[in-house]
Amino acid sequence: MEKRTSTGKTREKIKLYGFNNLTKTLSFNLYEICYTKTVQDRKAYIEYINEQYNAERLTRILHEVANIIGARVLNIAVQDYEPQGSSVTILICDDVAGEHLLPPTISGPDTLLAHLDKSHLTVHTYPEYHPDGGVCTFRTDIDISTCGEISPLNALNYLINKFDADILTMDYRVRGFTRDITGKKVFIDHDLVSIQDYLDESIIEKYSMIDVNVYQEHIFHTKCKSRFDDIDEYFFHFSKDDICAEEIAEITAKLNKERDEIFYGRNMGWGYYEEQ
User: Fold this and answer.
1) Which CATH class is domain 14-240?
2) What are the boundaries of each domain within the chain?
């Protein structure tokens, strides 16, 4: 039997002894960056993010992820935080395995939810801003962990388009093993060279990307930084027509520094940016 991959290629489906218990985990860090001029606007930005990405909307997004990867929802835990941020955790299973399970349940804020080495979706949001600098950063962490034949990679394009982030950090790892019908261990059941292989061309064109992969450990890491085209896209409650050229240059340097520090994962000096 052949199975078509997300890239349009076909591959022979592995014949297994028993069931597929490989654990495939996809972790996202998505960062959206903007610039505000006043303390009031910074607070308004946090309120805007809390409204746009509250627990209810995040739950709908994760439900769609479950549909895309072909999983069945078992349990949902949601929480909005004060002063900002939200969390959602959804337990899932392979849709076939869930045929005789009870309907999904929703847990309140006092529930501790843990489900090890099985399938789950989680999302956490972290809006924040510098008290003086005007740069605001909204981070979303998403984890998709699956067992069986369903693959979290199939939800890549939907999630990236849904959040429209400036910086993306993606990690994908396959753990454990299953066995084929001869008893030979299978440590990965699909061909993979790079996470980029699963991305739409429109996303690849939008971002600069770097891969850091450890193939022998089945660990794949891709970092993406959006191309800096229109500074107006980064302004909250004002536009470049409202400020002078000198201020535009100063803000551009601040935004580029923020983007690069997140992308490279380290603090960077001002020298390079002040010369641009």
Assistant:
1) alpha beta
2) 14-240
